[in-house]
Amino acid sequence: MTVVVPIIWIVITCVGMAITKKYGWGRVPLYFLPLVNLSIIWLQVGRVEPDYFFLCLSMAAVSGIVWAFLIVSRDDDLLFKRYLSQMAVILGLFTTIWWVGALIGFA
């Protein structure tokens, strides 16, 4: 389960974004990708190594703060919709990398 669910969710996210470029509802799986990855990381290593999970949460918060500073520094991009989309992509990418790290480190 901890290997198959994130892979299926990444495929659903990619297909949803490719098919529905015009519509906002195609990005819904992207918004839930970090949540799915973090929950799978918790299921995978939460009981054995909870520090790794909380490190991932801390790094997600730090990446959100850094990205907010980068967005605010560009005055023309103060749109929350754009920020939410960009943050979902960044957190989705980071949590996928952390999930692979947990898979390699604790397999």
List key phrases describing it.
flat; mainly alpha; 107 residues
Task: Write up what this structure looks like.
This protein is mostly helical and 107 residues long. The protein is 79% helix and 0% strand. The chain contains 4 helices and no strands.
Number of contiguous helices: 4
Strand-and-helix sequence, N→C? HHHH
Give the rounded overall mean pLDDT. 81
Overall structural class, as computed from helix and strand content, comes to mainly alpha
The largest β sheet comes out as: none
Q: How helical, in percent, are the residues?
A: over 70%
Strand percent estimate: under 5%
Radius of gyration: 15 Å
Distance between the termini: 13 Å
Shape, per Cα inertia axes: flat
Number of strands: 0
- The low-confidence runs, each spanning 5 or more residues with pLDDT under 50, are none
